[in-house]
Amino acid sequence: MAETPKSQTVHHVTFALPKRLGDKMARLLAAMEIPLALAENARSVRLRQLPRRFGFLGPSKRKEDSPSEIYTFTLESSSSAAVVGALASELGIDRPGQGSVHVQEVSEYVAATPAPILPAAGGNEAPSGFMRNLAVITCILSRSGSGEELSRLELELGTGVPIVTYGSSTGMRDRLGLLRITIPPEKELVHLLVPALDAESVIHMLIENGRLNRPGKGFVYCESASFGYFDTSLRIGHQPHLASMEQLIAAVDHLKGNTDWRRLAEPDAEATFRTNRQCAEIVLLCPPEHSARFVDAAMQAGAEGATTMLLRRLTTKTDEGGACERCILIVPRSIAEPVLDSILHAAQEYGGKLMSLQLQPLLHVFSHRFGQTSDSLDG
Amino acid sequence: MPKSTIRLPLPSALRMIGDYFVSRLRQQVRSVAFIVIYMVAFQLLIFGRAPAQALTIAGGIALVVVGLAFLLEGLLLGLMPLARQVGLHLSARGGLKIILPLGLLLGIASTLAEPAVAALRAVGGGIAAWESPLLFFLLQTNPDLLILAIAIGVGVAVAIGMARFYIGFALKPVILLSVGLLVVASLFCSYSDALAPILGLAWDAGAVTTGAVTVSVVLAIGIGLSRSSGKSQGAGSSFGIIMLASALPVLAVIILGMILVPRLPAPTSATNFFSVEMREQVLPLFEDEDAFQDYAQEHVGAGRQVEQVDGAPTPIVNESPRRTTQPSLLKVLGTESLMALRAVLPLAALLGIVLLFLLRDRPRHPDEIVIGIVFAFVGMMLLTTGIRIGLSQLGNDVGRRLPQVYGEVRVERGRIVVNNFDPAIVFKAATPEGDTIEAFSIFDGDTFETVTYRPEWYDPERKIYIHQIHTSPLTHPVLSQIGLLLILLFAFGMGYGATIAEPALNALGKTVEEITVGTTKSASLVRAVAVGVGIGLVLGVIRILYNLPMVWMILPPYLLLIPLTLASDEDFTGIAWDSGGVTTGSVTVPLVMAMGLGLGTQLDIVDGFGILAMAAAYTVVTVHIFGLIVLVRQRRVARATAREHENG
Questions:
Q1: Fewest beta carbons within 10 Å, which of A4, B75, B88, B488?
Q2: Quick one: which of B85, B71, B338 has its CA closest to B215?
Q3: What DSSP designation does B1 have?
Q4: Smallest Cβ distance to B641: which of A96, A174, A299?
Q5: Using one digit for the tens of pLDDT, what is the confidence trace for A42-74?
Q6: A138 CB contacts (<8 Å, ≥6 apart)?
Q7: pTM for the model
Q8: Which of B70, B72, B69, B65 is nearest to B34 (CA)?
Q9: Is the ipTM of this complex over 0.85?
Q10: Across the interface, which of B5, B519, B645 has its CB nearest the CB of A175?
Q11: Residue A161 — very low, low, confident or very high, per pLDDT cuts 50/70/90?
């Protein structure tokens, strides 16, 4: 038990696409013989600008939801750039409104299926036109509409199109006995892709304006992404200029080849809160309704709880379709190993129900709890 | 094993429980508010008086609110997760050999559990045996046969619907095929005198079968199945079972009718029906000879009874008005708790047994499931009790008074009281058929009017003759416009309000919102459905008032639905058609019946069928239109983003 579990570094690819591209994506994944991809229903949020009624000056803004889907799969590091580049150009990701993509480096302890060996055309370089050094910010909120406000905030920041998914939480709730029924487990996850340099200041803005530093409001964490492509169609409808601000930004990004130039303000040095930089994210996949035993095992090793979501499996094997559950556990890095051990041990005991287990260090974590305990965790 | 349980201090635990109850109650207060305010406003503004028995009604409404909160929470906490878990494991561990029998059983169990047929019997209570022997046979003599047909219809539907997720074929062809079958069958029936009356019953049967518990269980199983089978694409494929469960019973009842018709007498006149020559054919309609004799006594005019029914005893006064007596709370609570037990327990037990013994799995939180089932039971009991003593009284009250409103201008309460009546002024008149009737003339200071004389309206002791006006009120020139408008307005608002409170619809809305990750909001779907029910009720009431043929009411919406179904995307088609089946549930059905009976008593309407079917049909139309609007908006988003690209 004491030995460190073996892992290998792989690339985790996430496509967030408008729903109408779903069928095309499924076909492309099958054609490329990606053995296992996961699909999740999501919604993307944009601002629609309308001319004011009765001829008043300026546009009025309205939030507009559209159905989206998130596709995730894991590739060998050497082939990811080529595959992602090919998929992105087939899907026309470079056009605004066609969705976004990002690729993250993760350590994989249990692989769902062996990562496919695909022709590595472009080597390990990001495909042309892709941005490097990105970060993904995820807010986990209780589903009472606070996500609406947060995604509007993110839109106003102008960094990208927020994508919202649903999940449910286990952990604290389960330890309340029957009293737990008074706390709805449903959670809303708001994902946002930002340039890595901006991540901290965006998180600070979200915490401050979204009041995440109040108890029970939610949870925000940020992980790095090696490369990706933004969806810049934040605002639709009435455009006062020939090109939208997002298009101009995208054009400068393209010219400069990076996003460093558009760094937002330095994070507030006088902030009353501090994000925790000593945490890691453990992501596990298992058949539906089986996550409980792994979450229990993780909690015994010190994890606080987990957020679970149901995904669709898209596989090349016809007999293996269906649903599976993904659990996200945020743990201090110091206990990541015991937690992984405990999960792997549980998997052995229950006979191979664990489909995949991945670990990724987090850049920032903040919640009312983590914010307060950050000092003790740092030390 | 999770970490040790956290023990909260009592005050904070109580506060959590308090918050929980208050938030659930607040939600239901909001959903019931519309219908209550609407009906009270009608009473106050149109009739200028407060509802009778305001206190009882208020108590009933409070019960409805609490009941709805419990029921919805119970469904979401216990039954739906249980059903979803069953669905998730069905395709992996079950396969078709478990899915098909389970679907059949579920459908049959749910039909037997929820008392749809009681509602149908009430609606068709005034149908005379000679007008439609078939309806009479199905509703009064042999309702078990009708229940069986409906149960088989629902069972086959649930089995097919569940198998669809497993095998993975598209929904649209299924919808078009079943609607096509229904339309052809209905057209066929409408050309036969004997079969035509059954159309209303059949379509209503389809609408009422799926109650709150069935709907949520079936929805949740569908979600579980469609997610785990993985053969279906997209979100909307989780839907469609409820639509089938509403369509196939219609077909089942029509087929039953076709089988029965040759064995039953054809519709005829009352005179002919009770004649000795017909006896041989008529008797199968009744359980035995005695039942026939009793029926004959009740329904044959006093004067002719002796000649037509051999040795019939004392004449019986005709048309004792239907009365709604105020039942005692305890008695209602008793019967309703039995009904609630019947609605919740068999389905919960079936799911539990299948999960534990066939699929060999157990729920993560069995205590949560159990408490959910208890909540659902308590909620169902309180809800139906509250509806019976509160909401439907209110509905009945308004329904009853509305026709009076437009009776008032010409003749008060539709009666003329003749004092000091002298039977000697009665004279004899002949009908074209050669019968002789008695009549006399009334002079109201302006015009003479000759009316039929009925001995039972004459009180010889007080020498008073009370003439009841039986002309159809809508033929009345002055009042029909406003009166009709008021009735239709009332019907619309009542349909809209009752639907907003419908627990099954709320469960569907929550499911849709969950699956679409909030792109289709529960509230907007509920509103679209409510508008559909409102329109449906209006048209349904028009049908009863003018006695229009059922087929002309049913065909247009369904013909409209074919292009709508083809035009909308697969996801929304499933949602829309399922909404049609969901609409008519525990709140709507009793309220619509109360209104229908209230109107019916005043307007002398015998057959109230068709309102529920109309509500279901127009719901599908409005939800489709709502879906198309959403689709157009989303396409606009896509186009807007594409155009930006071209500009750039």
A1: A4
A2: B71
A3: -
A4: A96
A5: 888 887 777 777 767 666 777 778 888 999 998
A6: A189, A190, A191, A192, A220, A221, A222, A223
A7: 0.81
A8: B65
A9: no
A10: B5
A11: confident
Pairing of strands A100-110, A8-18: antiparallel
User: Tell me, what DSSP letter sits at residue A262?
Assistant: G
Dihedral sign from CA coordinates of B523, B524, B527, B532: negative
Can you give the pLDDT at residue B269?
75
Q: B234 in contact with A at a CB cutoff of 8 Å?
A: yes
Which of A312, A317, A342, A350 is best to mutate for the B interface (most B CBs within 10 A)? A312
| Residues whose CB falls within 8 Å of the CB of residue B450, separated by 6 or more in sequence, listed in order | B439, B440, B441, B442
Residue B309 has a pLDDT of 45
What φ, ψ does residue A189 adopt, rounded to 5°? Answer: -110, 125
Radius of gyration of chain B (CA): 27
Residues with Cβ within 8 Å of A243's Cβ and at least 6 positions away in sequence, in order, are A251, B647, B648
Tell whether the model's pLDDT for residue B534 goes beyond 70.
yes
- C-alpha torsion B378→B384→B385→B391, nearest 10: 140
Rounded CA-CA distance B570/A188 in Å is 26
Q: What is the per-residue pLDDT for B492?
A: 92
CA B188, B192, B193, B198 torsion-angle sign: negative
Q: Do A239 and B1 lie within an 8 Å CB cutoff?
A: no
- Spatial separation of the C-alpha atoms in residues B88 and A322, rounded to whole Å: 9
In the numeric block, the tokens 């009776």 are attached to B407
Interchain contact, A176 vs B6, CB within 8 Å: yes
DSSP strands (E only) in A119-245: 131-142, 163-170, 186-195, 218-229, 235-237
Work out how many CB contacts closer than 8 A connect A with B. Answer: 134
Query: What distance in Å separates the CA atoms of residue B497 and residue B597, rounded to the nearest whole number?
Result: 18
* Sequence-distant (≥ 6) Cβ neighbours of residue A118 within 8 angstroms: A32, A33, A75, A76, A79, A82, A83
B585 pLDDT above the threshold of 70: yes
Cβ distance of B2 and A22 shorter than 8 Å: no
A93 confidence band (pLDDT: 50, 70, 90): confident
What digits encode the pLDDT tens for the residues A95-113? 777 888 999 999 888 876 6
Q: pLDDT: is B277 or B410 the higher one?
A: B277
Q: How far apart are CA B546 and CA B484, in angstroms?
A: 11
Burial of A116 (0-12, 13-18, 19+ CB in 10 A): middle
Beta strand A36-51 with A235-237 is: parallel
| Token reading at A251 | 């054009």
Angstrom distance (rounded) from CA B397 to CA B402: 9
Cross-chain residue pair A66–B648, CB shorter than 8 Å: no
Return all residues near A12 (Cβ < 8 A) that are at least 6 apart.
A72, A73, A74, A103, A104, A105, A106, A358, A360
Mean pLDDT of chain A: 79
What six digits make up the tokens of B375? 């909540």
Whether residue A97 and residue B642 make contact (CB cut-off 8 A), yes or no, is yes
Angstrom distance (rounded) from CA B585 to CA B209: 8
In whole angstroms, give the CA distance from residue B315 to residue B292.
16
CA distance A245 to chain B (A): 11
Residues of B in contact with A319 (CB under 8 A): none
Amino acid at site B404 = Q
Digit-coded pLDDT (tens) for B12-63: 888 888 888 898 899 899 888 998 888 888 888 777 777 777 788 888 889 9
Please name the member of B3, B6, B648 whose beta carbon is closest to the beta carbon of A247: B648
Task: pLDDT band for A369, please (50, 70, 90 cuts).
Answer: low
B contacts of A96 (beta carbons < 8 Å): 641, 644-645, 648
When mean pLDDT is compared across B123-137, B367-381, B591-605, the lowest value belongs to: B591-605
Q: Which of A314, A340, A345 is nearest to A327 (CA)?
A: A340
